[in-house]
Task: structure prediction
Amino acid sequence: MKIAILLGEQGMAVRFSDAGIIYIFEKRDDVWISEQKFDFLSRSYTSMSDLRSYMNLVVRWLGDCKVFAAKLSNGYYRVLLEGYGIGLWTVEGKPQHFIAQIESFYQMRQNGGVVIEDGELERFIVPIPHKTGFYRTDLRDVMLHKTALNSKEILLPFFKKTPFRQLEIICEHIPRWFQSELSALGLLANIESSDQGFLKIHITKK
Result:
């Protein structure tokens, strides 16, 4: 398993907006070591197009590493990395403070363990009072609490298991997988933009 971590001079996790170095860690003989590093200088890019090109270069350098850890950053980076199938973890401190937790999560997934239990779904997706079959979720909040999970892992179990009339989703971007999955599940999405910069998506059945 490989885990990329963005670290500052003191060996602490930093934000994407900070200068730092990306280290790719691999576990060998029960010890996490890093032999690959990449100087990360995203703050030197002032336009979104230049930043996007730079991040594409970073993704190519990551290669087959599909797990990334950094301090809480702008949601743009999560959207871009998710588009490349890279899970982003929000972390604090030095790698030894959090790397075992990340490893444990993916071991559970590989061994067929349950990543999201029903109790967790009930915490993420809540019923709207006095409106039977109506639910709401704020994916911005979900991503802060369960940072390795993407929108598909949060929403698909709900769509498949829960009888509902409408799910209201608040998010920063339209999940890319909606186009392929919603139609197959017999669902429709009505999208509204907010003046506050987020989207409100209403999911209903056809």
